[in-house]
Amino acid sequence: MSINITKAKSAFIAEFDHAPDTVVRAPGRVNIIGEHTDYNHGFVLPMAIENDTVILARKRQDKTLNACAANLDRRVQANLEDRKRNSDEPWIDYLLGVADELLKLGKPLCGADLFILGDVPVGCGLSSSAALEMAAVRMFESFGGFSLDGAEAARLGQRVENLFLGLSTGIMDQFISRCGKAGHGLFLDCRSYHYELIPIAFPDALFVIANTCCARGLTKSKYNERVAECTEACTILKTQLRTAATHLRDFSLEDLEKCQSMIPDVPYRRARHVISENARTLNACEAMRNGDVAQLGQLMNASGDSLRTDYEVTSMELDAMTEAARALPGCFGARMTGAGFGGCTINLIARDQAQTFGETLMTQYTQRTGIKGELIYSNPADGAQILE
User: Fold this and answer.
1) Domain ranges in the chain?
2) In whole angstroms, how far apart are CA 157 and each of 94, 96, 161, 217, 274?
């Protein structure tokens, strides 16, 4: 985390004329492997990163949220008893949505003076929104004297996006932001919500995140297309194999091959990605447990290739970043991460070559695209915490 809490406290005092009662943080995340599997009830393997959203807060005696978003230099007041979305200041909707879901659970809430800041890049697929939600949950827990189970807090965050904000999102981002642990990835079954912390024990390698600095372009229509194509393939598989299965997660590549002649080409390729990606995610967990950097890198490469050819969610910039990275010394594997059509890549790099790798990658990316990229070096971080 690059945020100086002492300076943030001084800024809070300058804004509100008193000191904060509590300071909370929640991290962004990067997905190591397991892309576009969540809404197919599959498996994901993200890690929390060392970039956070931080909320400094002081309890109020009324039901007002008096909030300042420092990064945006924006201010707004909202009433916890009248939780309406704000089209002018949409960032406050995340906190109101959290409050709305907590009140449904009967949790005690109070108003607060809030100072929000962070170093999670926005709009590039590192889940700044989930970090804000999970930081808000921690803040309300601190003031209300209650504590949610980690999985329950994650499900609450997903409901905020699905019900309050009207966004069709999975649960991975909230789960890792709340439940992440330093030195670990988090394997999550998106059907059962069973999760396991997987040690990332690579003394000679680390993950480097490369931001294309092209905002994600996976529009709602493209997202809905992919969901519909997966549903079409699943329905045909279910009918042909006479099974009660409900999602692509329930089928094997052998099942898919048996029914290939019955499935149109595009849904077939979408299904092939999802089914093979689930297998790759399970294998990646095993590689991480064994400290097998080379195997994990190969799985990341295979995932990236599948996302490009079968799922078709990369972009010219993502492809340029990935291709350049794979050709550089010290790179075990590279792939796009997140929804696609922009955002970031994740790269598994030999630790002693990471600095040279990053500098060369940025130079080559700019030469290929004319765009200046951005690097984030991060170890796996802890999930949401009350700092003070």
Assistant:
1) 5-200+381-386
2) 9, 11, 7, 23, 25
Report residue 363 as tokens: 């130079």
In contact, 159 and 184? CB cutoff 8 Å:
no
pLDDT digits (tens, 9 = 90+) for 183-228: 999 999 999 999 999 999 899 999 999 999 997 666 667 888 999 9
pTM equals 0.93
Position 263, amino acid? I
CATH topology of domain 5-200+381-386: Ribosomal Protein S5; domain 2 (3.30.230)
Task: Give residue 32's identity as a one-letter amino acid code.
Answer: I
**Residue 95 burial by CB count (10 A; 0-12/13-18/19+): exposed, middle or buried?**
buried
Q: Which residues are catalytic?
A: 173
Cβ atoms of residues 135 and 55 within 8 Å: yes
The answer to whether the CB of 140 falls within 8 A of the CB of 102 is: yes
Asked if 186 and 196 touch (Cβ cutoff 8 Å), the reply is yes
Q: Answer for the pair 52, 119: CB distance below 8 angstroms, yes or no.
A: yes
